[in-house]
Amino acid sequence: MDSIKACLFDLDGVLVDTAKYHFLAWKRLAAELGFEFTAQDNEKLKGVSRMASLDILLKVGGLELEDGVKRELAERKNGWYVEYISKMDASEILPGALDFLKQCRERGLKTALGSASKNASVILQNTGLTPYFDAIIDGTRTSSAKPDPEVFLLGAEELGVPPEACVVFEDAEAGIEAARRAGMRCVGIGSPDTLGAADLVVPSLGDVSLNLHFQN
Length: 216
What we know:
Rossmann fold, globular
């Protein structure tokens, strides 16, 4: 237990489920472009940056567009997404997440958000989660997307905790790889079938015990 000093959390799929709003916005964009974007297609976007996600979507539709057009489309999609998340509240915090954050605070562990989302601050504010974080590293502060470890290394640096004393909570393969490359331990939130590279895989933060899982 003493070896862990900080917990770093991804946002989408770990603390809140904003993935559904991303999907709605991407699906709406695809419809405007004249093709269908399915839930199965959307799985390819997990943990991927906005522009990289757009490239995947355009590939699904068999489209090649100039950079200027792509930037405009990405902004349009983001506008819809922000519209959706602006209506979020604390009821959308995933089961067990708030209790686990409170346990971390009570135990004296430092906490940081490590998310690719450029709208993380809005989501944390609307759900009331902002006070539970010592550092917030999001897409506005990073230059490289996961699986690059930048977001987690910045989080550890801001917390003043060495990587080996951090544990990451992630729901995407790219995030698990990023944690590994950062030299941190990692708990996968989801299915062992896709997150097997993590040190431990659980269905949700409600299934994690600080006493049970963070021992030396």
